[in-house]
Amino acid sequence: MNDFLQSLQQGKERAAENDNNKKEINEIFEDFIQNLSTFLQIELTLKFKGEMKVEAPTRVHQPTRRPMRVIMPTLADLQVKEESTGWTEVQVKAPTHSPISLFCIRYGEVSYPLSIKYSDVRKTARDKDDLLSILSDIARSPDLHYKLKPIEPNRE
After folding, report:
1. Taking a C-beta distance cutoff of 8 angstroms, is the pair 46, 94 a contact?
2. Rounded Cα–Cα distance for residues 50 and 143 (Å)
3. Cβ neighbours, 10 Å, residue 120
4. Alpha-carbon span 47 to 95, nearest angstrom
5. From the CA atom positions of the chain, what is the Rg in Å?
6. How would residue 114 be classed by pLDDT, with cut points 50, 70 and 90?
7. How far apart, in whole angstroms, are the C-alpha atoms of residue 102 and residue 93?
8. Is 67 left (phi over 0), alpha (psi -120 to 50) or beta?
9. For a Cys staple, 151 with which of 41, 81, 98, 146, CB 3.0–4.6 Å?
10. Residue 93's closest CA among 44, 37, 150, 24?
11. Higher pLDDT residue, 102 or 35?
């Protein structure tokens, strides 16, 4: 009986810790989202268990007529690049053996297309709240560890 009560107490403590982590994650991402316009590049480092695919969205509002250029190397570093200034470069780094493709985010007045396929669920961000929600989901996933590093432009 004591073991049961002890495990119950540990479960309660873990639940409280998870709630605190969620609040902290939300604060981090809210700050991140509010400051998106100051970043030239975001480096998202992913480590995960199981199958995960992050895919480029099929329909994207294009600021130019040129097709979106997607670069998908077969090894660790994956990048999305667009020549026009309305696009932010996103890098995804993952273990070389992992089945991962990549996504892109457009920061602009119209939308923030972000398409992530994770556990067979496709999510598309249409605004900042959606983007925050998706990033928070990724951050809380037990099978995915992340590091998000915004890179600010040189102010010269």
Report:
1. yes
2. 7
3. 7
4. 7
5. 18
6. very low
7. 10
8. beta
9. 41
10. 44
11. 35
Residue 71: name the closest of 83, 62, 59, 63 by CA: 83
Residue with structure tokens 């400051």?
Answer: 35
The structure tokens listed for 64 are 């130019």
Percent residues over pLDDT 70 in the chain: 0
Token pair, residue 95, equals 């273990």
The dihedral sign for the CA sequence 126, 103, 144, 118 = positive
Phi/psi for 67 (5° steps) reads: -70, 150
At a CB cut-off of 8 Å and minimum separation 6, what does 153 contact? 38, 39, 40
Tokens of residue 68, six digits: 């979106």
The more confidently predicted of residues 1 and 21 is 21
Q: In what order do the strands lie in the sheet with 115-118?
A: 52-54, 115-118, 121-124
